[in-house]
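May I ask for a sample protein chain and its fold as tokens?
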Amino acid sequence: MMKSSLPTVVAFLVLGCAVMGQAQNAPVIKIETPEIVAEVNGDKINRSSLAAECLQLHGESELQELIGNTLIRLECERQRITVTAVEINAEILQMAQTYKMTSEELLQLFEKRFGRSAEEYRHTVWRILSLGKLAGQRLVITDAELQAEYEKHYGAAVKVRQIVLSSQAEAAEVLAQVRQYPDTFGAVAKNRSIDPTTQPYLGMMPPIRRNSYSPDVERILFAMQPGEISPVIEFPLGHFTIYKCEEYLEPVDADFAAVRQQLRIQLRDGKLPQVANEVFRELQSQTKVQVIFGTPALYLQYPGVAAILDDKIIISQQELADACIRKHGKDVLGDMINRRIVEQASRREGIIISEQDIDNEIREMAIKHLPLKQNGEPDTELWLKRATEETGLSVPMYRKNVIVPVLSLKRLTRDQTQVTERDIQLAFEANFGQKVRCLAIFFNANDHRRAQEVWQMANRHRTEEAFSDLAERYSVGETRLGKGFIPPIARHCGNPELEAAAFSLKPQEISQIVQIDDALAILYCIGYVDPLQVKVEEVRVDLIADIFEKKQQRAVARHFEMLHEQAVWENYLTGESRNSPMERAIREEENQIR
């Protein structure tokens, strides 16, 4: 079934819904941020500090959205396009009904899930409708597109396995092998395929419906019969793939008329980013845009200005700061509070993190996670590139917001991290000792009845094939796709219940129903993997380094949690607090009532 993913909301989290200025028919979003936005152990965080942090992190992207919004507003005014409150309310109602909600429930969900107000959502809808009118025929959804989208989500599906290889010669060899012995396709996929997403699951892919995959490959797959193996198919990136058709799944029983509106909205929102970009490019080509923000040389010439359009329309720094705080302020302030807690603890202990300390930490991270350069030096430039891309931070912000707090917490927990001989022995057994190869069927924690029924079925036919079939039919999560396959279970794996159950089994035995955290499990023992012929002393240095890092990470997490629990802080943007006078008064009153 197609997920109710609120596509309009998601699309405009990408496009943004910043304030549009004072357009006559656009809902105006007002923002009122207190001068003091938070207090941490008596230290005040003011609005200007929050604004500066938000601007550093999000100013550039938010300014582009503000410019885009202003261009939309100006073009709507030029073409005398209006979007009325009646149209906005009708669109919200239609969206809500599509997902079987009231308008109020939809607005509440938007606020709860994304932390945005009803006014912001109304503004988002205004922008959607405005863009739709500006886009004209480019945003029209045809009957053919609706039918294709229906087949994509509700039509018949084919289940296939794949083997992905890196050379044509290897693919030809493997194709000959699996055509001669078709039943080995899954095992060959597990041992030879280079695709990390399907290789652990014996090559099994999620069911493929029409219009959801490569059209050329779809034509081949939907022409195959169950059990048939495709020829080698070459992909543009130099991968060579072989498919095996397992079975066909019937279409989902969904009335086209009932889901038509949901499909239309999803298609429209899928087109919207591209169409919006086209509209923006056209409007930008007709408008002179001068960006001041991020260009210090222009700050004195244009104080308080973020951008100027056509030498007369001004987007102020204040507007930009307001947009940043409104969209990102709560998250940014939460991070600022956490960092302030760590900074205060570091000051109390006299801990000072130097620029050299930061450089050394980055160097160590590069050594751990990347190959050395040809000259034997760590590739810190590549590490910083990857780290900043992943976090979305600039290099200075990454150093300040990530490395400094981590180093501070490591210094604060330096005496709490020790590696004992027992630690080394346990780690050695976990990494190099005996392991159990099992299949597993997982159930939701409260699904005891289903687990009992499947356990009885499994015990009627105690074979690997029968257990795999049951896993494919009944298991929840990724083991269903992989027909029960899980990595070998080692000693001291971090899940004592699973470990105890696995190591109590003999080959071809089935475990009892095991309670594991928030799930139930049944295991089938395939056999045991012998310990590796390695002595402790040969790997002692590596084990100590690995153990130390893991124990240090746990110590850092525990210490930060303790600091956070002990701190007195109030977040005036979210209303959250910890150990504040008001919170203590409320707790005392609750205790008296009890």
